[in-house]
Amino acid sequence: MRRSRSGMMFAGLAAMSLAAGCGEGHQETNGYLPPGVEVVVELDSATVARDAALEPGALATVVADTVVGFTGPGERPFEVARRSAGSEAGHSRRFGTITLQLVLRDQSPALTQYPCTSCHAGARVTMAAQREPDVHNDIQPVHPDTSGGVCATCHAPEDASLLVLLEDRRAPLDQSYRLCAQCHFRQADAWAGGGHGKRLDGWQGRRVVMACTDCHDPHHPAVEPRIPFRAPVIERIRSDDP
Amino acid sequence: MSENQAGDLPERGNDGDLLQKPVDRRHALGMLVAGAVAGAQALGACVPLNGETPEQREVRVLAWREYIKGNYRFMTEAERAETITRLEELARLKRHEDVTIQSTGAQPGVVFGYAFNISKCQGFRNCIEACINENNLDRRADTQYIRIFEMSEGEVNFDLGDATFQHEVPAEGHFYLGTQCFQCANPPCTSVCPVGATWQEPDGIVVIDYDWCIGCRYCMAACPYWARRFNWSAPDVPASEINPNQHYLGNRARKNGVVEKCTFCIHRTRQGQLPSCVEACPTGARVFGNLLDPDSEIRWVLENKQVFRLKEDLKTEPRFWYFTD
Q1: Which of A54, B119, B137, B179 would bridge with B325, disulfide CB 3.0–4.6 Å?
Q2: Which residue of A has its CA nearest to B290?
Q3: ipTM value
């Protein structure tokens, strides 16, 4: 069962802030950790329990924002779920217990998804710098074509919480669909119409769908092959029975 | 012979009040049984009957009343409420399960439709897993409503597909086609039922009254899509895995010797939720919605994608379409 993980992640980051302050309280951490401080994030049991109780698709748990730039069937606006509505792909992958060397800053309240600015704040770590070996070494992008793409093709060098659109425009990281749709316009049309992607809340009422990066890891967009759930036991009565 | 036959028929006005009103065999039996049970209760108040505890007697009385009830389709609202109370009580007494059984009817202006994207499905069978848990399917016989057929590319005849694949998916050169009950608009399974135990609801869902089904399996023979399943024994579900959110026409406890099938998760979809298989699909291959709402996703798929149905030449008019990206 797919369950929300980002609630865990945010709590983890909050715990990070506290750990960073070495018990001096959250206010003290509204700046930066000295370089080289190791932060071990342990998820508290209450967060894990609450996270496990969340059922993706349950109406009460869906937090969503109105989609910008697309309308659904009948020109109706629709909503895109925040990551807390259930995804383990992309930036909302499960972290578990992690060890990071990083620069901390409070999360921007405007940003609802992965707070890149927690690490990529000020001049300490910028996208212009080389890939952080300890943090992003799992990212071996195959998409877009690595011959021409670099981090800054999609991520704004000045602010990691922004995405780069064509004509040097910017979009919040929440609105990954605006970036993806520039090339994958057929998929984006189908997504807005209902033929691609996944609806979360129910067939009736609010239409809340998942964003592109909820299913597709932007750096490895293909679905990974795996072993399926167990096969049925089918007794063939005639040779042509399926 | 003819005299005996005439003698078997009730003659109005001759044999007391019971026979003065038209009464069929089933109800006559019901009255006799109810009388017998009432008599047993009266006795039981004085002397323990066969060493029966009050709880055992309650189970027996409830089971008898269940046995003599009518077809759900023709019950009044009050009768439906009564049988649901009895079934919930029986579940509590016999199996120690705390279940809630709905009798939610069809929403007006709603006909359900389903679309399946054969470009998207990767054969992971998460839908099957979710269906088993949601619908309290028999774990011992491993009943599964959904089949996912592994098809060679270019093949659309699902008779030639393999539903028993067990290897890493997706396999090279194959696509995956899922089947379940298609809730046909012209269902052959309902018209062959000799007792009227299966019928189509106004929202298009074909349902079964498990307590009226006689287990003849004509409907299974009539279904061109192999969508129905027979209970050779009463479904065995561990108490800890029971889904307590149940519907009379859906996932409530079935009995030995009756037919069951997918109902588009009637207990969920009539409340506005998506079927469990749609919610579980990790690839977004499944689209569900109201065919009568022109702004629904299912209508968008039907209007904008190339769609087909299985065995369309049979004129069963399935409300289940396949489409590609």
Answers
A1: B119
A2: A203
A3: 0.79
